[in-house]
Design goal:
Elements (H helix, E strand, L loop, with lengths): L1 H9 L2 E7 L4 H5 L7 H4 L9 H9 L4 E7 L15 H8 L7 H13 L3 E5 L7 H5 L11 H17 L4 E2 L2 E2 L2 H16 L6 H31 L8 H20 L7 H45 L6 H18 L5 H115 L7 H11 L3 H137 L3 H10 L1
Parallel strand pairs: 1-2, 2-3
Antiparallel strand pairs: 4-5
Family: Belongs to the TRAFAC class dynamin-like GTPase superfamily. GB1/RHD3 GTPase family.
Keywords: Coiled coil, GTP-binding, Hydrolase, Nucleotide-binding, Signal
Pfam family, one: GBP
Length: 620
């Protein structure tokens, strides 16, 4: 009874073998069917036997009665041929006088709503061959037997279909779990309950399917999302939908979507997927914040290294940085970092540029004032060469005057020297004549005085006798000595005059050299004065033009400063508008989130699937 019950509970096509024809004995052999309602329950609550049979018929398999060694011809009372199924139905009709067997017939018809019959003759005709049937080749069996067997096999495979419970196909894993539940109940001396066993199997299948589906979703999100963070929220939502669709395929692979418990399983799946999605979104937001913050700092650092001439350059560079940031940044923190960090840094850069421009303007203004003061000083310095020129002319005139006086003195000295020279020459000629006379006289006297000392007295007497007195001789000697002295003195004066003449010659040569140098100096001075005048005039013109340019630059700087102030005000106004727009967007997002939560609550109250509501919330 246990094996019979287990076969009926597990099979989708029940094949019952019996020998011979369907007679009262064959019907009686199926007496186990009478007790099926007692040994198998559809549900645990109590019902009548008829209700139990009706419920069991919904879960029982197709019944195929195979009649082995069938020897009758299939014909009715009139001799007309009938089918095997008609033969079965005729055999299950009530037979008067056999009430107990008739009850069994009714039970068979109630339990097996789909039933059929197959008849097969003996495989061999000889008894000896029948005893050794296992050794007889298939080709040696009776042709009618082979034809009936092949028709039987074809019928089985034609009407064979998967086992179903409550319209749900039983898979291989579910079949094992279902057999385990039935055996557990039978071995525990309990009555197998189809619904309880099926509920346990379905619940177990749902747990496995939920685990597998969640694992598929987690694996797909790890491969396609977690390893490529950060990414845009739209792309993450698309990957979520794809991963969820693939996971739902695993969940729907149980073929139990019509089971009431499938809604609960799908709700649990939606909750697990929502939890995993929130984790991925959190990681995406954190990764996006890190990457975007790092990118923003790098771009702003590059921006800080550049110099800007004005706010237009700064705004142009900022626009380029903004476009570059938007092209590289990704993730939900993309706009948040842009509106937060970069906008604040832009404001600081604007303030810094404003301060630098103001300091630069002040420095240029001070420099222009200094250059103007230096130019005025240089103009004053350039006027000094005129005074120097006048002083040089005065000194030159004084020098020329002194030079003329020196020239006149030199000329007077030269004339005086010439007169004295002439006098000296006359005196020299006179002295030479006198010296010649005196020399002649001296020579004659010396010749006379060469006599011996013994004759000195004689000489004296002789000289006396000659009439030349001694005093005259001494006087002559003195005159000669005096003349020699005068001659030496004249010679000395002549040397002095010659030296004076040489000195005068050198003085004249120096005077000529001085005159030449003076003329050259005068020419150079005039040339220098002309150069200084030209340079002064050019410098004055240059300084005047520079002064005009500096004044214009100062005015231009003041205009730029005013324009920069206006641009700063405009930029501050734009920044305030951007912040206000960001706050408005934030408020809109909050309102949208509240609306989505309200819609989600409405959907849940309406009884829609939670996962559909979650998808709707994600789309919002």
């Amino acid at each position: 009874m246990q094996i019979f019950s287990l076969c009926l509970l597990l099979s989708s096509y029940f094949i019952y073998n019996s020998m011979g024809v369907i007679d009262e004995q064959a019907i009686d052999d199926l007496h186990l069917v009478l007790n099926l309602a007692q040994h198998i329950h559809v549900k645990s609550r109590r019902k009548t036997e008829e209700e139990k049979r009706t419920d069991l018929s919904l879960y029982f398999p197709i019944f195929l009665w195979v009649l082995r060694d069938f020897h009758l011809s299939l014909a009715d009372e009139k001799g007309q041929s009938i089918s095997e199924k008609e033969y079965l139905e005729r055999a299950l009709r009530p037979n008067p006088g056999h009430e107990e067997k008739n009850q069994l017939r009714e039970v068979i018809k109630d339990l097996f709503r789909e039933r059929d019959c197959v008849t097969i003759v003996r495989p061999v005709a000889e008894e000896a061959d029948l005893r050794n049937i296992q050794q007889v080749p298939y080709e040696k069996l009776r042709p009618q037997f082979r034809t009936q067997v092949e028709a039987f096999v074809k019928k089985v495979y034609t009407y064979l279909k998967p086992k179903k419970i409550d319209g749900n196909v039983v898979t291989g894993r579910m079949f094992v779990d279902l057999a385990s539940e039935y055996c557990k109940a039978i071995n525990g001396s309990a009555v197998p309950t189809i619904h309880a066993a099926w509920a346990s199997v379905v619940q177990h299948q749902f747990r496995l399917a939920l685990r597998d589906a969640v694992q598929v979703y987690r694996q797909r999100m790890n491969e396609r999302a977690m390893q490529h963070l950060p990414m845009a929220e739209e792309k993450l939502r698309d990957l979520h939908k794809i991963a969820k669709a693939e996971a739902l395929k695993t969940l729907f692979a149980t073929k139990l979507e019509h089971d009431p418990r499938f809604r609960e399983c799908r709700s649990q799946f939606a909750a697990r997927v929502k939890q995993l999605l929130e984790h991925v979104r959190t990681e995406n937001a954190n990764s996006s914040a890190r990457v975007c913050d790092k990118l923003a700092k790098e771009l702003f650092k590059q921006m800080e290294q550049k110099t800007y001439q004005g706010f237009n350059d700064l705004l142009l560079e900022w626009e380029q940085v903004k476009q570059l940031y938007l092209s590289k940044a990704a993730g939900p923190s993309r706009l948040e970092v842009l509106s937060g960090y970069l906008n604040s840094q832009l404001l600081q850069s604007t303030q810094k540029l404003w301060e630098e421009l103001q300091v630069g303007a002040e420095e240029r203004k001070s420099l222009l004032k200094q250059q103007l003061a230096e130019s005025e000083a240089r103009i004053l310095q350039l006027k000094a060469p005129e005074d120097a020129q006048r002083q040089l002319l005065t000194e030159r005139l004084d020098f020329e005057r002194r030079l003329d006086e020196a020239r006149r003195s030199a000329e007077a000295a030269a004339q005086k020297a010439a007169r004295e020279k002439a006098q000296l020459l006359d005196a020299e000629r006179t002295l030479k004549e006198q010296m010649k006379i005196m020399q002649d006289r001296l020579n004659s006297e010396q010749r006379r005085g060469t006599q011996s000392s013994a004759l000195s007295s004689a000489a004296a007497v002789h000289s006396t006798q000659l009439g030349v007195p001694k005093s005259e001789l001494d006087s002559l000697k003195d005159s000669v000595m005096q003349m020699l002295t005068e001659l030496r003195s004249k010679e000395l004066q002549r040397n002095q005059l010659q030296m004076q003449v040489e000195h005068d010659k050198q003085l004249i040569a120096l005077e000529r050299t001085f005159q030449k140098q003076l003329q050259e100096a005068r020419a150079r001075s005039e040339q220098l004065v002309e150069q200084l005048r030209n340079s002064y005039e050019k410098e004055v013109e240059t300084l005047k033009s520079q002064r005009v340019e500096l004044v214009e630059q100062n005015k231009d700087l003041e205009r730029k400063l005013s324009s920069s102030q206006q641009e700063l005000k405009l930029l501050s106004r734009h920044l305030d508008e951007a912040r206000e727009a960001s706050r408005a967007q934030q408020r809109q997002v909050e309102v949208s989130q509240q609306q989505s939560e309200m819609l989600l609550a409405v959907l849940e109250k309406l009884g829609g699937p939670k996962e559909d509501a979650e998808d709707f919330k994600g789309q919002v």
